[in-house]
Design goal:
The chain has 286 residues and is α/β, with parallel strands linked by helices. It contains nine helices and ten strands. The longest helix is centred in the N-terminal third of the chain and has 18 residues. Bound molecules: fe (iii) ion (2 copies) and zinc ion (ZN). Zinc ion (ZN) binds next to helix 6.
Length: 286
């Protein structure tokens, strides 16, 4: 089907049905949301009536997949054991709740090793995933590519591959590629998109790539800053982001905007990107 699957980050404060209605009003067919306050805290009680109304709306309008986002404070590779236990408990609870809207994604930052070193970070994050994943779970966990701010792990495709290699239920885990993060992490998607995708395929495998966070970046390549810009207003630029949505190896994935925008700003960005969607059209492949 020749359709761009695009959406943005919505507030989950008013429940699932409100998010579904907002997605439709923005002319989107997928969306992201935080499972709870992005800085952590208790999740709201699930409202089964709200969920059922949302599921009916989702089915009728072919919404999805949803890309739920874990809170930022969750650090799977924290140095302190109580923080790793906290991460495990939040994630277990989020995954349990997400089974009420089955078959979607749960996007997770792989964590910050806080001085323990990348190898230790990779071990801890893989351990947590192996502890929390269940064979019967229908939600796929997506590790996000990171900018390499501070001691973040997951800046390189090698680091993400090293986590994936350790997962005992590999079909339960994929990757969410954030364009701002890989740019800030040093990957030159502006001049060498083909090489970056080849590198991803070599290290991880493009079949593991399940979603894209489509963001421009306020900073130059390799800055490790992680400051998102609106589409076309940053250092990546509109043409590269248009090339990404039209790239035949990526064009069927869900694209999530995490750009600094209000409702109207998102509606404009979504309309702009839809107007430029022509997968494979006009591109010459050597
Ligand atoms: Fe994220
Ligand atoms: Fe992101
Ligand atoms: Zn970011």
């Amino acid at each position: 089907m020749n359709q761009l699957h695009i959406g943005n980050h919505l507030s989950s404060a008013r429940g699932y049905l409100a998010m579904g209605q907002e997605a439709l009003s923005l002319k989107t067919d997928t969306f992201a949301f935080f499972t709870r306050n992005p800085r952590g805290g208790k999740a709201k009680d699930l409202n089964i009536k709200d969920i059922n109304q949302f599921l009916a709306l989702k089915k009728k309008n072919r919404l999805g997949p949803l890309v739920a986002h874990a809170p930022y404070t969750l650090n799977p590779c924290a140095a302190k054991e109580d923080l790793r236990v906290f991460a495990y408990e939040i994630m277990r609870e989020d995954l349990r709740r997400l089974e009420y809207t089955p078959g979607n994604y749960y996007n997770l930052h792989p964590g910050s090793h806080v001085g323990q070193g990348t190898a230790a970070g990779i071990e801890y994050t893989a351990q947590l995933l192996n502890r929390v994943l269940k064979p019967e779970q229908t939600t796929t966990v997506l590790l996000e590519t990171m900018a390499g701010k501070g001691t973040e792990i997951g800046r390189t495709f090698e680091e993400l591959a090293a986590i994936l290699e350790r997962i005992k239920l590999p079909q339960q885990v994929g990757i969410c590629l954030d364009t701002c993060h890989i740019w800030d992490g040093g990957y030159d998607i502006v001049q060498h998109l083909d090489d970056v995708l080849a590198e991803f395929d070599h290290q991880i495998g493009l079949s593991r790539l399940r979603a894209i966070h489509l963001n421009d970046s306020l900073n130059p390549r390799g800055s490790h800053k992680d400051r998102h810009a609106r589409i076309g207003e940053g250092c990546i630029g509109l043409e590269t982001l248009v090339r990404i949505i039209n790239e035949p190896r990526l064009c069927k994935l869900p694209f999530i905007l995490e750009t600094p925008n209000d409702h109207d700003g998102y509606a404009k960005e979504i309309a702009l990107l839809r107007s430029r969607f022509q997968p494979g059209g006009g591109t010459v492949h050597a």
